Amino acid sequence: NPVLLNYGIDELRFTKPVYPGAKIYIKFTCKEKLRQEKKEDTDIAKGIVKWLVEMFDETDELIGIATILTMVAMKH
User: Fold this and answer.
1) Which range of residues forms the domain containing residue 35?
2) What is the pLDDT of residues 7-61, one digit of tens each?
3) What are the residues facing 12 on neighbouring strands?
4) Is residue 51 classed exposed, middle or buried when 0-12, 13-18 and 19+ CB atoms within 10 A define those classes?
5) How far lies 38's CA from each of 8, 22, 41, 52, 64, in Å?
6) DSSP-assigned letter for residue 59
7) Which residues of 19-48 are buried (b: 16+ CB within 10 A; e: fewer)?
8) Alpha-carbon torsion angle 26, 19, 60, 11, nearest 10
9) How many domains, the chain?
10) Which of 22, 24, 65, 69 sits CB 3.0–4.6 Å from 7 for a disulfide?
11) Tell me: the pLDDT tens digits for 32-44?
12) Distance between CA atoms of 43 and 37, rounded to whole angstroms?
């Protein structure tokens, strides 16, 4: 679904130092979907998606973890 906005970052933790020039990759996993009720008839249907974000270095070692929140348009 189309992302309307990035809502925030929760529980961000780095478990290992990351240095300039390091090659990293990110894995996103959907943790939870929350429907937001319309406040007015003109509002679009939307919800919040909570993503588990895992960050890894070039040796596949976990270097960080976070929860990212995005607001998305709901399918009709």
Assistant:
1) 3-73
2) 899 999 999 999 999 999 999 999 999 988 888 888 888 899 999 999 999 999 9
3) none
4) middle
5) 21, 44, 7, 26, 35
6) T
7) eeeeeeeeeeeeeeeeeeeeeeeeeeebbe
8) -50
9) 1
10) 69
11) 999 888 888 888 8
12) 9
Kindly report the pTM of this predicted structure.
0.78
**Polymer length in residues for the chain:** 76
Separation of alpha carbons 57 and 44, rounded Å: 39
Q: How far apart are CA 75 and CA 62, in angstroms?
A: 34
Six-digit token string for 75:
């399918």
Residue 64 confidence (pLDDT):
97
User: Given its phi and psi angles, is residue 69 left (phi above 0), alpha (psi -120 to 50 degrees) or beta?
Assistant: beta
Note the pLDDT of residue 76.
64
